Amino acid sequence: MKETINIGLIGYGIVGSGAVKILIENEDAIARKVGSRLVVKRIADLDITTPRPFAVDPSVLTTDVSSLLDDHDIDIVIETIGGTKPAGDFIERALRSGKSVVTANKELIAKEGERFLPLAAQLGLDFMFEASVGGGIPIISPMKGSLAGNEILQVKGIVNGTTNYILTRMRMEGLGYEEIVKDAQTRGYAEADPSADVDGHDAAYKTAILASIAFTTRVDVNRVYREGITNLNATDMRYADELGYVIKLLGIAQIIDGKVLARVHPTFVPKGHPLAHVDYVNNAIFVRGSAVGEVMFYGPGAGSGAAGSAVVGDVIEVARNIRQGCCARVPCTCFDQRDMLGMDSVVCKNYIRILAQDKPRVLATIANEFADRNVSIESVLQKNLLDSDAEIVWLTHEAPEPMVRGALDAISKLSVVKQVSSWVRVAD
Amino acid sequence: MKETINIGLIGYGIVGSGAVKILIENEDAIARKVGSRLVVKRIADLDITTPRPFAVDPSVLTTDVSSLLDDHDIDIVIETIGGTKPAGDFIERALRSGKSVVTANKELIAKEGERFLPLAAQLGLDFMFEASVGGGIPIISPMKGSLAGNEILQVKGIVNGTTNYILTRMRMEGLGYEEIVKDAQTRGYAEADPSADVDGHDAAYKTAILASIAFTTRVDVNRVYREGITNLNATDMRYADELGYVIKLLGIAQIIDGKVLARVHPTFVPKGHPLAHVDYVNNAIFVRGSAVGEVMFYGPGAGSGAAGSAVVGDVIEVARNIRQGCCARVPCTCFDQRDMLGMDSVVCKNYIRILAQDKPRVLATIANEFADRNVSIESVLQKNLLDSDAEIVWLTHEAPEPMVRGALDAISKLSVVKQVSSWVRVAD
């Protein structure tokens, strides 16, 4: 049994310093939970002079990542740089030199998971990434462990804190996307270039990771449908409220006839649904299992403490495995080869807002286009605007996406229609 | 590496047959998740003739539990009899004959956990009990794993499905406890003798287990304060609603100055709190960690599939450990010796309903008793009843429980007061 397990950390930013703070502050309790002492032996970062929120002994810091990767006394490498390069190469070097790896890097796992998971398994090492999805919420480990008896049928949730913060404030304050995103940037809740969040890339990475674990198959992140929140506005927020819904950016992954459908898009969520109450930077993930039914995991989706908690949870698990000589005890679970489906397989209710001329028979003309494609209508709201225009809001019953798209194509070509202003899918 | 891992199950009831159904129906997928095949080799029950919802090969069934416990080929024993006797003796025999154990038995863990956890650790075996709390919700494993970096400060939640079902229906239908419990019994949601649920015993067992894991200490279940739901009525439900609350039976465990305060009692939960939306047989558990902040786990708290899912999740974890020769990789985490506190340490808001004479100065007289003990009042509602009585509903600010109790003792002795009809604690 190893009395001391040494840790090297690469990337001393928000997540990295959160993890180090926990490892040092709770060192004694963690030692008792593992049976061995966990020591942060080395921290590598390009910048080791800017003070961090949590100060460490300067002798631990280095700008030379090789001195960490080549140190034979280091048992576990934590990677919290983010991005694919150079993080991926550092991780591969760590694994090839016999170190287990814990990472928070969703982009890397989503794009190159295949590069690391089989390699770690083959080398008898652990490669863990709980912090890559849902911040501090335990979700990957429960899916691989406590829920492993289930065939998982669907995973669905709010997986991006920044967009949820923006949408929550748009709803509460009745303001548009542009106004809130600017304020969110000044407050540090959105990046200067917010596209990774607001265009749905981050949520797509996380949805791909969740789908991959849930459905025991590799998931090509490029085949995850992705639609961001930049087109949402105060008008749609208001109509959503009027109709009994809240707009959320959801990641949804499901199994249809053995194939995977994974998508990220703004969604009308009924006010009675628990996801409607998940606000600000919180995340929540629903898992539907064949035996358990529906379980939900909820908590802070971002932040130093939350992500640090998830990283340290993984480190503790790896340390227990190192102590017992049983790394790689959970085999790589991507043993299926499932095809992926596109959006044509979606069947759902839809919210559609159309700007049209305020003339007799306009409503009937549009309704006919829906009817021609068997898209039946649950409710219609027509509001006459000032300049002889009418805003017509439609809520359809469940309909196949190709039929809805076909109807909207035809409707947008009607001479009485000025534009199809919005189309948002509605969750059951 | 063992190619086949054999399982014996004792107690073929709701939970046991749920677990067996999953193990058999998902056998192939589970084998790939473990790396070895899991085989249900023997099922022992006193009754092996009554048909179960899931049929197994009759040759697997036995009424002779010793033939299972003495079978050297059986690696894992699942205990789903419930109760302390004879379950505890069977589990001890299983451990002493070198078998790891998975159980759903909350009463046994809460009362005699100390008998099994150190024994299993000493013998190098696993002893797991995810299904004992929260039905199908992963909660014990995440606390021991993903959240293990945190000092856990509070665990709070709805942990009994039967009482939550009764309270949900009382609220929705405006009926009293007696009416709903009778209907719940005929529908199979409450036992013929419902006391284990409605008097809070079941919730106390689960709260003791949660507290013990959260605070890394043994918890004496007899020192968990316990108050059931049998005194709740439609009137209090209505006032709760009027004041912006929902009444839930909560288990609450917290650390105060290093000591453990654990309690089960009806609680006013603000309508904006996620726990207020957990209805019917669902359970939800909040965990507050020093690093992660607050995370919530939600899902079905009972039922064959839910509990079976939790049991099989444990079995899969144990099987992975057996395969790698690393059972007992998670040490027993009760390494602290913490004292337990009583209800005198509670500081909270309170809902109090008083029946008094409808006379001048009654309100002031009662208010003086609160004021004398520094119990300040957030709001008061007075309703005059038909027969010259007045019903006065008080919502206090946060106050120490001994002060509130002192005030109520004095108030109940006032000549103008007919009775203190209700006293329910209010959650923040």
Structure, briefly:
2 copies of one chain form a homodimer. Chain A has 14 helices and 17 strands.
Structure, explained:
In chain A, a hairpin with a 4-residue loop joins β14 and β15. Chain A is elongated. Chain A has 428 residues and is α/β, with parallel strands linked by helices. Chain A is 36% helix and 27% strand. Chain A folds into three domains: 4-136 and 304-324, NAD(P)-binding Rossmann-like Domain (Rossmann fold), CATH 3.40.50; 140-300, Dihydrodipicolinate Reductase, domain 2 (2-Layer Sandwich); 346-426, ACT domain (Alpha-Beta Plaits), CATH 3.30.70.260. The first copy, chain A, has 14 helices and 17 strands. Chains A and B meet through α1, α2, α6, β12 and α12 of A and α1, α2, α6, β12 and α12 of B.
Structural class of chain A: alpha/beta
Number of discrete helical segments of chain A: 14
Number of strands of chain A: 17
Share of residues in helices of chain A: 25-40%
Distance between the termini of chain A: 52 Å
**Can you tell me the CATH architecture of the largest domain in chain A?**
2-Layer Sandwich
The pLDDT mean of chain A sits at 96
Contiguous runs where pLDDT drops below 50 for at least 5 residues of chain A:
none
Q: How would you sum up the major sheet of chain A? A: 11 strands, mixed
CATH class placement of the largest domain in chain A: Alpha Beta
Taken from the alpha-carbon principal axes, the silhouette of chain A is elongated
Q: Tell me what portion of residues of chain A adopts beta-strand conformation.
A: 25-35%
| CATH H-level superfamily of the largest domain in chain A | Dihydrodipicolinate Reductase, domain 2
The quaternary structure here is homodimer
